[in-house]
Amino acid sequence: MSQIIINGNGNHYDDSHKIKNGNSYKNNNSSPPRTASPIFSYVNENYSYEIIDNIKNYLMARTKIRPKIGIICGTGLGHLAENLTEADSFPYEEIPNFPVSTVAGHAGRMVFGYLNGIEVMCMQGRFHYYEGYALSTCSMPVRVMKFCGCTHLIATNAAGGLNSSYNVGDIMIVKDHINIMGFAGNSPLQGPNDHRFGPRFPPMNKAYDPELIDIALRLSKEMKMESETRCGVYTCVGGPNYETVAELRMWKILGVDAVGMSTVHEVITARHCNLKVFGFSLITNKCETEYDTHEETNHDDVVTIGQRRQAKITNFVTRMVEEINNLIINCQ
Ligand SMILES: O=P(O)(O)O[C@@H]1C[C@H](O)[C@@H](CO)O1
Ligand SMILES: Nc1nc2[nH]cnc2c(=O)[nH]1
Description:
By secondary structure, the protein is α/β, with parallel strands linked by helices. It has a single domain (4-331), classed as Rossmann fold (3-Layer(aba) Sandwich). The protein has ten helices and eleven strands. The strands form two sheets. It has a five-stranded mixed barrel with strand order 7-10-9-8-11, surrounded by five helices. Helix 2 packs across helix 4. The termini are far apart. The structure holds the ligand O=P(O)(O)O[C@@H]1C[C@H](O)[C@@H](CO)O1 and guanine. Guanine (GUN) binds next to strand 7, strand 10 and strand 11. One of its GO terms (molecular function) is purine-nucleoside phosphorylase activity. It is an enzyme of class 2 (transferase). Keywords: Glycosyltransferase, Transferase. Its EC number is 2.4.2.1.
């Protein structure tokens, strides 16, 4: 039975054609035309098991890299992907059924390559709910990573520091999250569950792998980054607006340390398909919890801080990838 897919540009087309002619989506002009203007629909698009498998086949046929570690680059953190060697890069608009990235500071491609000799795949730019995509669409690439062979996910993001002891430029290792959008009934796992992805009711109490958190804390000491490394609770809001003072005060009471617009739904999807997760936020701004300030959060500053911290973040992620790779080898 064919399935109607709603593509990034709002075009509807019959995916039976795509699956039959999977090879026709090469890096040429045979991709369906897509623009950087997603449909504005929060309806869950049906990224079935077969479609994810089809995306995986498309990618695996075009790269020799066989990654065990997937990395999602947050806003301003895409330079990570530029450190990959022997890289194969796939612009999202060329990958069948992929959404397109519309945010400044997100390049919009999937990059496979070696990070210090270790095979990884890297999303250079992610999808956000405020771009008009359903949460399940935002986190769909995590399932692609799983299908490509990944066992571990490193999710990075830019976030506002709500904990008043945090400084701009700090790295906050995510020890847990509060799924504020989930409180309103919005989940990437909403809708029928395909048990081939994972269970209907996945646990979330160890969403961020405790062993990986310990490793990251040790690394931060070894790398003499202790004074700029935090460990805290992240939350994701729908955006795209930043927060009001009253909202921030409320979340502070709830125990939130950093506020962003991503990651939570990706981590839920990752845990659903049994990927081990490590996450961190780059604190790009202080959340304004007082009314008598002239400071305002803005996206340009968020991107600029990401760029300024490029070197530190790249070293940190490279070391984490080495450590995770050692764990994987020791488990074989
Ligand atoms: O993709 P991330 O979560 O790193 O980006 C955050 C959230 C918004 O996209 C943007 C706001 O400045 O930064
Ligand atoms: N929601 C939210 N996202 C961010 N991304 C970077 N900074 C912020 C912030 O202060 N709030």
